[in-house]
Amino acid sequence: MTKTTPPATSNYAATDADIWQGRIDAEDGEAGMRFHQKVTLIDDDEQLTNQAGVVLLGFACDEGVKRNKGRVGAVQAPDIIRKALANTAWHHDNATNTSTFVDAGNIYCSDTDLAASQKELANYVETALNKQNKVMVLGGGHEIAWGTFQGLAQHFQTTKVNKPKIGIINFDAHFDLRTYSTDGQAFPTSSGTPFNQIAKHCQQLGWEFNYACLGVSRASNTQALFTLADQLGVHYREDHQLASYHLAERIEELTAFIDNVDHLYLTIDIDVFSASTAPGVSAPAARGVNYESVEALLQPIFNAKNSAGQAKLIIADLAEYNPNFDIDNQTARLAARLTWDITRAMFK
Ligand SMILES: N=CN[C@@H](CCC(=O)O)C(=O)O
Ligand SMILES: [Mn+2]
Ligand SMILES: [Mn+2]
């Protein structure tokens, strides 16, 4: 059984080493390595070194989904995705490059102070980015995005990047642009509000809000949300528009979106996939998008480079995996495969 409650004194806990277990092919030496044999576990951000590689963090949180009237269970997700990732093959070292994969542990979520947990996640993300690592965060509900983005914003403020041009690319059946009240009472922030929070934050900072939401289900988002998306200039495409016969056009549009920004934050809500592919989520998609379409659209994100030749993609997260509704761990395997794909791109 994995841990589901925060330690008494802090929202942070290192990952249990026994989560990272898998097959060992000793006969193949270095060429037979898997993630569980390559991961470096740390229990303090002081242990993060400069340019270590890819830093994995968990945001173990049910509170956003609970507040959004959804089905809870995502708190268990980070450790279960780690278990599914543990046995996957390691392909990241070569003659000129040794890549480090650091598991920095979980930020747990207090059910009384979601904002404090998001801030704790943000602070850890900022530290990892300041030390020139790429960051991969495993949720939790989509309230993870408010923590991830704040960390990214703090990083640019600390490193004195003036008005960074950040592109946020969200694969999701939902906009997650819901309205919230500033008193936090009438309409609290939740898993349904993060991109509205980010839009307001960008406005306050005088930064552009470049948000692409791919896979939106018109049946699952009200007119109010479409209107707000239009007002905010969101680049959105619906689930049916991501079918294979539309992909060439989608890739062209997404490439134009990417060309217009300098840094990319990728966020994938597992409920973008059809329920038959991803049953383990709070809000399963009747239609959804297939893996091949998402995979094709990930390529321009993975390949994007800035003028200095550096990868634009510096941070990513996965949200909404809910093991309570999974079937034979198939959604966990999907989440692990996405983590594998993303971290592979980050190592290159
Ligand atoms: N992050 C989740 N967002 C969805 C959930 C929809 C539902 O529970 O039906 C939303 O708020 O729109
Ligand atoms: Mn979402
Ligand atoms: Mn969603």
TrEMBL record:
Mn(2+) 1 binds at H142, D172, H174, D176, D269, D271. The keyword Manganese applies. It comes from the Bacteria. It catalyses: N-formimidoyl-L-glutamate + H2O = formamide + L-glutamate. Binds 2 manganese ions per subunit. Its cofactor is Mn(2+). Keywords: Histidine metabolism, Hydrolase, Manganese, Metal-binding. Its EC number is 3.5.3.8. GO terms for biological process: L-histidine catabolic process to glutamate and formamide; L-histidine catabolic process to glutamate and formate; putrescine biosynthetic process from arginine, via agmatine. SUPFAM superfamilies: Arginase/deacetylase. Mn(2+) 2 binds at D172, H174, D269, D271. Belongs to the arginase family. This is Formimidoylglutamase. It comes from Moritella yayanosii. The gene is hutG.
